[in-house]
Amino acid sequence: MDVAQRVAVVTGGGAGIGSALVARLARAGARVVVADLDADGARAVAEAVNADHPGSTVSVGADVADTEQIQQVVGLAESAFGPVDLYFANAGIAGAPGLDASEQDWDRSIDVNVRAHIRAARLLVPRWLERGEGYFVSTASAAGLLTQIGSATYAVTKHAAVAFAEWLSVTYGDRGIRVSCLCPMGVNTKLLLSGEDSGDALGQAATRAVTSAGDVLEPAEVADAVLAALEDERFLVLPHEDVLETYRNKGSDYDRWLRGMRRYQSSLLAQA
Questions:
Q1: SUPFAM superfamilies of this UniProt entry (predicted)?
Q2: Which of 85, 175, 240, 259 is such that its CA lies 20 to 30 A from the CA of 253?
Q3: Which tens digits make up the pLDDT trace of 190-219?
Q4: What is the dihedral of CA 153, 102, 62, 20, to 10 degrees?
């Protein structure tokens, strides 16, 4: 899809990968709603992008795991620019490490990392089917294809995000609905360091696992990879190419992969 003159919503757009996506979309000629729980962060991103591309963005503070607030975000896009063509379900949280995660931790991780995608799709897909096209972009993680050492909430919900994106593509891909799923490893964002700052050995191992497994990319590099995938209408977006080879190795010998992951986890914990 050529994003020029298209209307996009980017959730979690106030920082990190989200803010880089906003800037990259605007540079390509799209009109973008920047949505973030941090309204000030969203506003700052919109103002910075508008300085280079006047009138290309508007911002809104919103909890995009909440159906009513998703409706408000979409309504803002429609009133400011027109019907939404692309929805970037990018907002996410790291969650808590280990089995110490509370019921509230699980609920919030499932809401933000999975149900937010489902709720947005329930709102937008019927409209897109009527129009004959639409594009849903899910930010998952390499943890959704492999797993996440340390955080069960993150590993489980990112697997679910990948599964939901796959289901959308299988179910609606022949009816004009395009779907892409972003699965990076380490990206230089605040989320990357959340485990290191947790004070928990498993949380610290989670950060070390990501930072030692491959290059830590800048958000702008990831945004470029996403836009390239959109141009090709490619499902799986892998800014870290090594993820695909690891994923193939996992599928070819699951038990060997699990043994390797246990050894890797032990080595990371030994660094604590």
A1: NAD(P)-binding Rossmann-fold domains (SSF51735)
A2: 240
A3: 777 665 666 667 767 777 777 777 789 999
A4: -30
Enclosing H/E stretch for 35? strand 31-36
- Residue 272 included in any domain: no
CA angle 73, 76, 81 (to 5 degrees): 125
Single out the residue of 259, 155, 168, 271 nearest to residue 212, CA to CA.
Answer: 271
Question: Does some domain include residue 2?
Answer: no
Tell me the one-letter amino acid at 48.
A
Residue 107 within a domain = yes
Looking up tokens 């870290």 gives 240
- Residue of 87, 135, 154, 172 with catalytic role: 154
Between CA 34 and CA 74 the distance in angstroms is 11
The residue segments making up the domain with residue 58 are: 7-267
Q: pTM higher than 0.85 for the full model?
A: yes
Say whether pLDDT at 1 is over 90.
Answer: yes
154 classed as catalytic: yes
Residue 54, class by beta-carbon neighbours within 10 Å (0-12 exposed, 13-18 middle, 19+ buried)?
exposed
Place of tokens 């593509």: 169
